[in-house]
Every structure is written in structure tokens, then in C-alpha cells.
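pls design
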């Protein structure tokens, strides 16, 4: 398990998101499509000053552990994992209501961290891995149903016709430092509870021991599944170690395979050395641990061998997203480390044809996201994202809307 400060460092370097509720939307008649926006050049995070101007974002959110989804009418929901709540906002960024509380009963949450919208009318809520359930609410926040699962469900995503998909994991190996993660992608019928498996793969989950701590960077070095819903509500499954996606209908029938145009990055001795140095530098600046503990941990990190964390190549991408027009956005990996790495996005048409590559320019913000956090949605009217203000005297979060130029 990654200690929180290191996880947060990773979060600043990654981008991951899912906005399945936008699939019924599209570019208004007569307006430029999102593909033309991407082809026109980098998207700079320059906020619309009128969006959320009456909302005190810091009073609502004090943690980056949040997930976001936009409904067909332009309202949006944010799940705050550490507050065990969901907040609803209007299309101008004004708070409408909040619902939920910590607990195990109907309508309660324990660290909600995945949101999507099913058939335009139900909010699908996933929770922290230890909670073996998925909850359904109407778009006014009224509890409707809970789905019990045999294992913890990861990244639940709404499809169509009452179907959702999610990932479950099993593990095998010799001890905690040498494990394999067996990932399975399941489709669940929310009406009948029927469940089918459509994909399975094994990923490296190797850890290194540093004193009494185990450091595992999982999908950062060993790969993972990513899932999304197409504009039609089909399931897109991507293995981040393979240069293609598979597309399945909600009944589990394989429809197509989409190739992606990303060259793998070889894992070299230099890359491993830079990766190790970066993590040691970050640990050296750790503020929530006692100084003697930091020094001892750094000493152990220097002695440890990091080679076993990596395969022959890095995973190809960090996440996939489907935007309001149905384009598939692939956030590709680079060998850059730290907080100033470029956020590069390859764009594919709804039928899988390569369109272009673009970049998100953070400007005065940090776009802090990770595979467990979905904090950005590309709508037909603009990009909505939760960001951290870079030059704020204290930790400051806000939700911004970026108008497309």
C-alpha cells in the first residue's frame, strides 16, 4: 500500500477520469465538435470566472479524494471520499444539496469514490475497496437500491439498459512482496443481478520492503485494466500493457477491437534509477513523519533494489475517457517524473480512428488525479475539473470550468 504523501505525489502527475453520464449529450447543432477543439491545440486550464463564484469550495472540500460526474441536464455530482458524502451542483457551479453519511446501512457510504449515471436517471455510486456493494440513487439523491458483490468492486461504470460494469481482483504469489494480481471485468444486470465475466488478465503486483513498510506502485509499473462506457453505452476495456481496446455490448458480446497508436517506453537502468531517486527525494521532504523516522526510511530506500517493481516496458497509458461526443481520450504515459510532467492525450473517434494528440496545460493549477480519483469531465460546453491552486498560501481546492476556445 502506498503511503498517502507518496500517493498524493503520484496523483499530481497523473490524469484519470470518467464521465459516463455525458454519453447522451453531444455538440449542439451548428457548433464545433470536440474533435475540432482537440485538433486546434493544447487546452489551457483558464477558468470561467462566473462558474461557482458563489461557492466556497474550500469549505466543501479539503481532500483530493473526490470523484465527479455530469448529468444530462448539466448538473453535476462530486463524491467526497473522506467526508462520506455526495454533493450536487447546478450547471453554474452552485451547491444544490448534499446527501449521505458514514455507515453501512441503505443510503450510507464508506468513502464513495466512483460515480456514473445509468440510463440518464440513476446515480451509480462505488465505494472504497473494503465495501462490497454498489449503491443506486435517483438524481435527486434519494436511495433506490444496493447491489451486493462477492468481492470488492473497483471502478463501477454505468453502461445502458440497466447494466453496469466493474473490476474485481484476486491475488496469488509467495508472500506480500511477490504477488500477481488477477483482474476480472464483470458486467452486472442491476435488475436481475445476473453477472458475466468478459475479460481477465494477470498483472505484476510486486512490492519492495523498506524497513517495516511495503512499497507497491501496482498499475504505475505493472499495468492494470481500465474501463469506460461508449456513447452508445457499450463497454470499453483497456489493458494498459496492450496497444488496443476491446468493446463489448452490455450483454457481454465482443463487438470490436480498437488499436491504439502508442509506442511502449522501455524500462532502462536509468529510468529505474531516476524513479528511485524521485521517491527518495519526496520521502526526504515528508512533513507528517518524525525526522528520525524519515531519515531511517530514506536510508532503507537507498539500500533497496527497485528493479523488481518493473516489467520490460512501462504501461502505455494512465486512463481512458469517453467525452460528450463519444471520442475516446487516452492519457498516455511518458517517462517523466514529478509534478511538471506534460499531460498528453491521444484522441480517437467513436469508431476508433486516430484523430490527434493534444495536451492539457495546467497553468496556475495542479490537476491532481489518480486511478482511484475521477475529477474531470469533458462536456460539450467546457471542461469541468477539480484542481488545486498552485500559489495559494495553504492547500486550496476549487472546481473550475474551462471554456473551449
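designed seq:
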Amino acid at each position: 500500500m502506498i503511503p498517502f504523501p507518496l500517493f498524493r505525489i503520484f496523483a499530481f502527475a497523473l490524469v484519470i477520469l470518467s464521465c459516463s453520464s455525458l454519453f447522451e449529450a453531444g455538440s449542439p447543432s451548428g457548433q464545433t465538435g470536440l474533435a475540432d477543439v482537440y485538433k486546434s491545440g493544447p487546452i489551457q486550464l483558464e477558468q470561467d470566472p462566473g462558474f461557482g463564484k458563489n461557492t466556497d469550495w474550500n469549505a466543501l472540500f479539503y481532500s483530493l479524494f473526490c470523484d465527479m460526474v455530469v448529468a444530462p441536464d448539466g448538473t453535476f455530482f462530486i463524491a467526497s471520499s473522506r467526508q462520506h458524502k455526495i454533493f450536487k451542483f447546478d450547471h453554474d457551479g452552485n451547491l444544490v444539496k448534499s446527501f449521505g453519511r458514514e455507515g453501512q446501512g441503505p443510503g450510507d457510504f464508506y468513502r464513495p469514490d466512483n460515480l456514473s449515471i445509468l440510463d440518464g436517471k440513476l446515480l451509480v455510486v462505488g465505494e472504497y475497496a473494503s465495501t462490497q456493494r454498489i449503491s443506486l440513487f435517483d438524481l435527486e439523491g434519494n436511495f433506490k437500491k444496493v447491489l451486493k458483490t462477492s468481492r470488492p468492486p473497483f471502478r463501477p461504470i454505468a453502461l445502458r439498459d440497466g447494466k453496469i460494469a466493474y473490476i474485481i481482483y484476486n491475488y496469488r504469489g509467495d508472500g506480500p512482496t511477490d504477488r500477481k494480481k488477477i483482474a476480472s471485468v464483470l458486467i452486472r444486470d442491476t435488475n436481475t443481478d445476473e453477472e458475466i465475466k468478459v475479460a481477465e488478465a494477470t498483472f505484476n503486483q510486486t512490492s519492495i520492503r523498506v524497513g517495516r513498510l511495503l512499497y507497491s506502485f501496482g498499475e504505475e509499473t505493472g499495468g492494470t485494466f481500465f474501463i469506460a462506457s461508449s456513447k452508445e453505452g457499450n463497454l470499453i476495456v483497456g489493458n494498459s500493457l496492450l496497444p488496443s481496446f476491446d468493446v463489448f455490448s452490455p450483454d457481454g458480446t465482443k463487438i470490436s477491437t480498437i488499436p491504439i497508436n502508442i509506442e511502449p517506453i522501455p524500462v532502462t537502468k536509468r529510468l529505474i534509477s531516476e524513479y528511485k531517486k524521485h521517491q527518495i527525494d519526496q520521502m526526504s521532504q515528508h512533513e507528517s513523519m518524525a525526522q528520525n523516522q524519515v531519515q531511517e526510511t530514506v536510508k532503507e530506500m537507498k539500500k533497496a533494489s527497485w528493479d523488481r517493481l518493473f516489467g520490460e516496458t512501462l504501461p502505455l497509458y494512465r486512463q481512458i475517457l469517453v467525452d460528450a461526443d463519444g471520442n475516446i481520450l487516452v492519457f498516455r504515459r511518458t517517462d517523466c517524473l514529478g509534478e511538471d510532467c506534460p499531460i498528453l492525450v491521444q484522441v480517437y473517434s467513436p469508431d476508433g480512428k486516430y484523430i490527434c494528440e493534444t495536451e492539457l496545460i495546467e497553468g496556475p493549477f495542479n490537476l491532481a488525479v489518480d486511478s482511484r480519483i475521477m475529477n474531470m469531465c469533458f462536456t460539450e460546453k467546457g471542461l469541468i475539473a477539480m484542481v488545486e491552486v498552485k500559489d495559494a498560501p495553504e492547500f486550496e481546492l476549487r472546481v473550475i470550468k474551462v471554456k473551449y476556445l
